[in-house]
Amino acid sequence: MVRIVTDSTADLTSAQQRSAGITVVPLNVHFGDQVFRDRVDLTGAEFFEKLKSSSQHPRTSQPSVGAFEEAFRALRSDGHEVAAVLLSAKVSGTYNSALMAARSVDQDHIEVIDSESASMALGFLALEGAEKAKAGASLKEVAAHVRALVPKAKILATMDSLTYLERGGRIGKARALLGSLLNVKPLITVQDGEVVPLGRARSWPQALDRLVEMLERDSNLTRLAVLHGAADTDAQQLRARVAPRYPGLEIHLAEIGPVLGTYTGPGVVGFTYLIA
């Protein structure tokens, strides 16, 4: 059987991982000399508390090649083939670490896929792969299915400021939004694997209105989640607001973890979804 491997930026809950049989390899967050495995040694909530009190801005690092080798070997030893669906290669070396590990372990039976995305947009791709695998698809079929969905995985988000993205060097084309008036809220997406600006809102309520408007421009949603970082109340309200429009969809709440939180800071909220 084909098994799915992803990384911790996919924002999958433990229950989702278990149910789908997905293996998650964590990235790392560094506070000075301290190293924490994303979502293993530090939860999202713990991270944002630590961020408030730390005098040092955290940094992140991809999983080691060895971490992927360990995950791949464990699955291959059980007779499984592997499809690894991972964080955008344009913002992290995670994909390249996995490629090197696949070559070392058994590249003929391991497919490594660049999601060109993050958060539950990545998580949904991993879940789609797992469902295809459980239906009996071959490794090539699973990989082809996931790759076909990559351009259909979407992220819309707003945040208090772009400060954290800029500090972390992941601001991408959203650099065009820097220098905005104080308290103007940036609206961003992820396109072709990097952060891209969507515009600005003059207030937080207006930013949330714009997110809903942009979400509703896409039809035929097959999966939907509200993402947030230390913004549970806003996320709950957004979910309640859009739920009547999507009665057939389970709308997940996806709390971002320490690695993504390093770049968004607290107060990020938005949607991730797949379109048919």
Residue stretches low in confidence (pLDDT < 50, at least 5 long) are 170-176
| Order of helix and strand elements from N to C terminus | EHEEEHEHEHEHHEHEEHEHEHE
CATH class of the largest domain: Alpha Beta
Given the helix and strand composition, which structural class is it? alpha/beta
β-strand percent reads: 25-35%
Question: Can you list the strand order of the major beta sheet?
Answer: 10-9-8-13-11-12
Backbone CA Rg: 18 Å
From the N-terminal CA to the C-terminal CA, the straight-line distance is: 26 Å
CATH topology of the largest domain: Hypothetical Protein Tm841, Chain: A,domain 3
Give the biggest sheet. 6 strands, mixed
The CATH architecture classification of the largest domain is 2-Layer Sandwich
- Give the CA-based shape: globular
The portion of residues assigned to helices is: 25-40%
Average pLDDT rating: 92
How many domains comprise the coordinates?
2
Q: Count the helices. How many?
A: 10
Strands, total number: 13
Features:
single chain; 276 residues; alpha/beta; Rossmann fold; Hypothetical Protein Tm841, Chain: A,domain 3; 6-stranded mixed beta sheet; 4-stranded parallel beta sheet; 10 helices; 38% helix; globular
SSE layout:
Blueprint: E1 2-7, H1 14-20, E2 23-25, E3 28-31, E4 34-37, H2 44-53, E5 59-61, H3 65-77, E6 81-86, H4 94-105, E7 110-114, H5 119-134, H6 139-149, E8 153-158, H7 163-167, E9 185-191, E10 194-201, H8 204-217, E11 221-229, H9 232-242, E12 251-255, H10 258-264, E13 268-275
Parallel strand pairs: 1-2, 1-6, 6-7, 11-12
Antiparallel strand pairs: 3-4, 3-5, 8-9, 8-13, 9-10, 11-13
Helix pairs in contact: 3-4, 5-6
